[in-house]
Amino acid sequence: MTGLLNAQVETAETSPTKPQKIKRSQAERVLEKFGGASRLARIFKEMGLDRNRATVYKWLYPRERGGTDGLIPTSAWGDVMNAARLEGILLTAEDMDPRVF
Asked: Percentage of the chain surpassing pLDDT 70?
């Protein structure tokens, strides 16, 4: 019985066997599904859209560097969803959620 009283509670933070979940931004989650910013920019180009690689990369940059702090501008959401559909990529509501988790 004393073993139960003295047992340490193991959490995700203290467990060496459980990987810690990395917090990722909306842009990180979405771009990962596309295989990176360069690939999404190529898809946009094939779609005839004027969203170049630098523009897509800025989604990952902090505002201080001219970026969007990991947020995909709402003006680009439709293009991103269309690109995903054309490429057979499943984007979930969780992927498009602007919160970091």
From this structure: 78
